[in-house]
């Protein structure tokens, strides 16, 4: 079908299920809330004729507005609400750009690069903003500032590890075993590692002690997940067939 009907919002929304990536391994918020919100935004962007890169750029603006607010504005309930809204919208748009690309027939290497760079920047910037806010606005022992520093490292390694796993599987032609229906139980179990849950935690930002405890618990959950995931990921990568010539330990094959 061509013409206005095929580019309409409802038509685009109806097409989304047929072009979606698998939900395997996705935490509950990302799977059940963010993907659906992103789908609505993707359908709207498709109807308006926007490119995925434009949606990525708008996502970055929303996210970094929230990040800047964390670092610069003293915590208060309204501030927490605004930060949460900016981060949640930015995350939904981050899902929308990929869905929009698939609606348009597939993304480009440049678009994928841009998306990953923005994701990497926002993860580090968010936790560093919490570090700045902790120093400026929170009456906590100095040792508590180690939490956002640790969270920065954990978030960076998790993001890099997951991204590299997917890229290496793609290079080596390996596919993950897909179940007919991704596990809902697993999605719920890993929900503390969900970036969307971290965004929602800023609803508590105006209640400083409650936010500090919540943020600390999320850090511990992400750290525990990383420590359990790294050995499995290494084993998975060790099982991939060499691309030829072996690896000299420098990343070159």
From TrEMBL:
Segments passing through the bilayer: 78-96, 144-164, 184-205, 211-230
Keyword set includes Transmembrane helix: yes
A Pfam family assignment: CDP-OH_P_transf
GO cellular component, one term: membrane
One biological process term in Gene Ontology: phospholipid biosynthetic process
InterPro entries to which the protein is assigned, alphabetical: CDP-OH_P_trans (IPR000462), CDP-OH_PTrfase_TM_dom (IPR043130), CDP_ALCOHOL_P_TRANSF_CS (IPR048254)
Gene3D superfamilies found in the cross-reference section: 1.20.120.1760
Record GO terms (molecular function): phosphotransferase activity, for other substituted phosphate groups
Keyword set, alphabetical order: Membrane, Transferase, Transmembrane, Transmembrane helix
UniProt superkingdom: Bacteria
Family (UniProt): Belongs to the CDP-alcohol phosphatidyltransferase class-I family.
Name used for this protein in its record: CDP-alcohol phosphatidyltransferase
Species in which this protein is naturally found: Amycolatopsis arida
